[in-house]
Specification:
Blueprint lengths: L1 E6 L24 H4 L4 E3 L5 E4 L4 E6 L7 E13 L12 E13 L2 E6 L4 E2 L5 H10 L3 E11 L5 E4 L1 H4 L6 H7 L5 E3 L5 E2 L5 E2 L3 E12 L8 H6 L6 E11 L18 E6 L9 E5 L21 E5 L7 H10 L1 H7 L7 E5 L12 E6 L8 E7 L4 E10 L1 H14 L14 H20 L31 E2 L5 E2 L10 H11 L8 H14 L7 H4 L18 H18 L14 H9 L3 H8 L5 E2 L13 E2 L2 H12 L4 H4 L3 H5 L25 H16 L2 H13 L6 H13 L8 H21 L6 H20 L6 H19 L25
Parallel strand pairs: 1-21, 8-16, 18-19, 18-20, 20-22
Antiparallel strand pairs: 2-3, 3-4, 4-10, 5-6, 5-15, 6-7, 7-9, 9-10, 11-14, 12-14, 13-14, 14-15, 16-17, 21-22, 23-24, 25-26
Helix pairs in contact: 6-9, 7-10, 8-9, 8-14, 10-11, 13-15, 13-16, 15-19, 19-22, 21-22, 21-23, 22-23, 22-24, 23-24
GO molecular function: metallopeptidase activity
Protein name: Peptidase
Keywords: Signal
Length: 837
């Protein structure tokens, strides 16, 4: 679901130093053979020598040119042993920074230098190139004293401290997550010889590092305490790699915003005035035809090979292999032979941290969290060196829970086997899709959140690079049907994207023109590409780009999923949990069903104040931006208001009777619905939390500001005032004699809606006119309430009085007024930050 990529920075200039050794202090430097005679030598790219007696690891640098500079290497780090905490974000197998470095010999010192490739010059004039290089800093990553040298120019350095440093930034991450101030304890840290190896093309070093808290700043956070046997000693492993650079032959391909790829960017200060300073290329793997003249079913010199972590259990392991293999179909559609993209189990003796292996890892965490795809890429070209997929194991368990909630399958204590388990079938279908999705990121592909809006059958997938919500229908008996919960196989958009990124054009073909044809042909069918920045925010305006949605019409699909939800809730009972499970666990199973509509609601809301647009480039012929049709917006408003209705938010009395307080050993968690009633289940707080999910998006300040503007441009489009009036009406109209749970839910939702309007009225992010309209509406409601006849219903009278008092407080000093914060609902998406996207 997510993507992180780390660019290796290629060599630029050298580090200059005037430091020299004093002649009267010169001591004869031993040869490498003499110095390492009693050590264990590991020969290869950068040889290592292990001094077991002293516990030191020496590194050999084979030689330097006439300017004291070595060849370039890819240098990368990773975290083979993680913390198991999604909140800390330090996962097993996580890839860290990658860069291209070189060594420089300066007298008795050797420096490890990372040049600055963010700023470059394409000029052939050395002076012009030097001017750019000298204008920006580079980084010296390490400094070493020469311990031995040979007449050939090779030197030996003690690299122990370098390899025992916190290169992955674990201590910094712990501090950022407010877990305390940690540092490495040298006495409890050492080189991990079992994972320290040297090969002809790469050198691998792993270290066991123990982090201890500062004595004056003890462990302050719960996250470390949750996952560590002794939070005073957090021990992980960090891995460092030096790799031979890829050889010549890779041809970079230009980035185009609508092609669906991540860009690799740098600044070229030698482009002519008026030219593009920022140069952008797509990130992708190298594929070269065996036969350059081949036009179809072309064999690759080196196919793209991925490996699946053997730590994944069956049947999940096979699902990962099957899902990732879907990509071969896309490569075949791009002119390559079957088997151009391969997926197999990782060899038993292979190290997943070895940069030579593209890996799909199965990672365990204390709480569920994001999966993601990361790459290490060469910044000269955007060529992917290593794809690294991280899949969280708890995702499948959450999918299984969702299916249990929908099906309530354990009638009369029924048990399941793998052959007749519909929950397992759905979870494995999602696992295949997830494996394909995250692998897609490591092929260079970004999310396409507009894909699900393209017409398709339930069995089809438009793109595995979207976030899929399960497709749930009702059978003839009114039972939820999950048989087509997730599409099978690679999607139509995925084939387009791979065609753009990986098709090779032979002869004298105009690559730019041919690539343009690929995209224009796709767009003529109605397929478009819209990604994260447009789809993720509450303020999003695009009517088709959403997360976890379905259907070509968001409002119609919201109405449909509300029907499915109502039906499933009516069937929900203790049959949703296995015999022998504490009955209070029904509440945990209820959560995903009660909030089943949350993301489709968000999709429908984004049609309101929405703008249909494309990533336009001048001359590409794409349609101009257009305000969403007024009738489409009104239809969306009607559907969205249903999510604030007591009919939607009031749980059946039979279900409330079935939910006991939790027994010892089964506490509530962040996955639990909120409660203001202590240990007992709180249906009112649950309804308030669900309502706030709608209100936060519906009354977003940017959306409110757009409604004001679009109504001026398109008079038939909904106005902000009209929307506020509709919300107030939907949450205020109820019959007299409201001594029912439904009436109490509606009163609670009216409170939440009023607070959301207060929030809009004082939100500086909203336009001044949007704030003014919100204040005017609140004043109108206040006037109506204070002028209304007294209520005979005590509950309603108390409720009205409380609202009037709250509005009085607002009107007395709106600049000082603090609206109530939204009530937090349990997380729907995987828990954790989006920082590695």
């Amino acid at each position: 679901m997510r993507f992180a990529y780390f660019f290796c920075l290629l060599a630029g200039g050298g580090v200059l130093s005037a430091q020299t050794a004093k002649t009267d202090d010169v001591v004869a430097t031993p040869t490498i053979a003499g110095k390492t005679a009693a050590m264990t030598r590991m020969a290869g790219l950068l040889p290592l020598d292990w001094d077991a007696r002293a516990g030191k690891l020496y590194l050999e640098v084979p030689g330097f040119d006439g300017k004291g500079r070595s060849q370039d290497y890819l240098y990368a780090d990773s975290l083979p042993y993680g913390t198991g905490s999604n909140d800390l974000g330090l996962d097993r197998g996580q890839t860290g920074d990658g860069r291209i470095v070189h060594f420089e010999r300066v007298g008795p010192k050797v420096l490890l230098v990372e040049p600055n490739l963010m700023f470059r010059s394409s000029a052939t004039d050395p002076a012009e190139t030097l001017a750019v290089r000298q204008s920006f800093p580079e980084s010296v990553l390490g400094g070493f004293a020469v311990a031995a040298e040979d007449a050939s120019g090779a030197v030996l350095v003690d690299a122990t401290e370098f390899f025992l440093r916190d290169v992955h930034g674990v201590a910094e991450t712990l501090a950022q997550r407010q877990q305390g101030s940690f540092k490495i304890d040298p006495m409890r840290s050492t080189i991990a010889l079992d994972r320290t190896k040297v090969f002809p093309k790469n050198t691998e070093v792993e270290a066991v590092l123990t982090f201890v808290p500062d004595k004056e700043k003890p462990v302050s956070g719960q996250f470390v305490k949750d996952v560590t046997p002794d939070p005073q000693a957090l021990t992980v492993r960090e891995h460092q790699t030096f790799l031979e650079l890829p050889g010549p032959g890779y041809v970079a391909r230009r980035y185009y915003p609508r092609a669906g790829y991540f860009p690799m960017s740098y600044r070229d200060y030698s482009v002519p005035l008026g030219g593009a300073l920022d140069q952008q290329f797509i990130v992708r793997h190298r594929l070269v035809k065996k036969d350059a003249a081949c036009k179809a079913k072309c064999e690759a010199v080196t196919p793209i090979q991925y490996y699946v972590d053997r730590g994944a259990p069956e049947p999940i392991r096979q699902a990962l292999v099957d899902g990732a293999r879907w990509w071969d179909e896309a490569f075949q559609a791009a002119g390559w032979a079957p088997g151009t993209f391969k997926v197999d189990l990782l060899p038993a003796d292979a190290d997943p941290m070895d940069v030579r292996y593209n890996i799909i890892q199965w990672v365990h965490r204390y709480t569920r969290g994001w999966s993601y795809g990361a790459v290490i890429a060469d910044p000269r070209t955007g060529e992917i060196i290593k794809g690294n997929v991280t899949l969280g194991s708890l995702r499948g368990r959450q999918d299984y829970l969702i299916a249990e909630a929908l099906l309530s399958p354990y009638v009369a204590g029924k048990t399941m086997t793998a052959a007749n388990d519909p929950m397992l079938a759905m979870a494995l279908a999602r696992t295949r899709q997830l494996a394909a999705h995250e692998t897609g990121h490591t092929l260079g592909l970004a999310h396409n959140f507009a894909a699900s809006a393209f017409p398709h059958t339930p069995e089809q997938s438009v793109s595995v690079m979207d976030y899929p919500h399960p497709w749930i229908t009702l059978d003839a008996q009114g039972v939820p049907d999950l048989s087509h919960a997730y599409g099978v196989g690679i999607g139509q958009w995925d084939k387009v994207a791979i065609d753009y990124g990986y098709r090779q054009f032979g002869g004298k073909a105009d690559e730019t023109a041919e690539l343009g044809k690929i995209l224009s042909t796709s767009e003529k069918t109605g397929m478009i590409f819209i990604t994260d920045d447009d789809a993720r925010p509450f303020s999003g305006a695009h009517p088709h780009a959403h997360l976890w949605d379905n259907g070509t019409d968001p409002a119609d699909e919201l109405n449909r999923i509300l029907t499915v939800r109502t039906t499933a809730l009516a069937r929900f009972s203790e049959n949703a949990i296995r015999v022998g499970t504490p009955v209070s666990q029904l509440e945990d199973t209820l959560v995903p069903l009660f909030l089943l509509h949350r993301y489709q609601t968000e999709a429908a809301i984004k049609e309101i104040g929405g703008l249909d647009y494309r990533y336009q480039i001048r001359g590409d012929g794409q349609a101009a931006p257009e305000v969403v049709a007024p009738e489409t917006q009104q239809k969306a408003i009607a559907a969205v208001l249903k999510t604030l209705s007591p009919d939607t938010l009031t749980l059946p009395e039979a279900l409330l009777t079935a939910l006991p307080p939790r027994p010892p050993g089964y506490p509530s968690t962040r996955e639990s619905l909120p409660s203001e009633t202590g240990l007992t289940f709180d249906p009112i707080a649950a309804a308030e939390a669900a309502a706030d999910l709608t209100l936060q998006v519906l009354l977003d300040p940017a959306r409110a500001s757009r409604l004001v503007q679009y109504h001026m441009r398109v008079p038939k489009a909904p106005s902000l005032r009209g929307l506020l009036e509709a919300v107030s009406k939907a949450t205020a109209e109820r019959p007299e004699g409201g001594h029912t749970m439904s009436s109490e839910v509606e009163r609670a939702v009216e409170f939440r809606a009023t607070e959301a309007m207060f929030g809009l009225a004082v939100n500086p992010a909203a336009s001044s006119q949007a704030r003014a309209i919100a204040r005017s509406h609140i004043a109108d409601v206040y006037k109506e309430m204070t002028g209304a006849a007294p209520l005979a219903d005590t509950a309603e009278a108390i409720h009205r009085a409380a609202l009037i008092e709250r509005m009085n407080e607002f009107q007395r000093a709106p600049e000082k007024f603090v609206p109530a914060k939204p009530i937090d609902a349990p997380p729907g998406m995987p828990i954790g930050a989006d920082e590695v996207m």
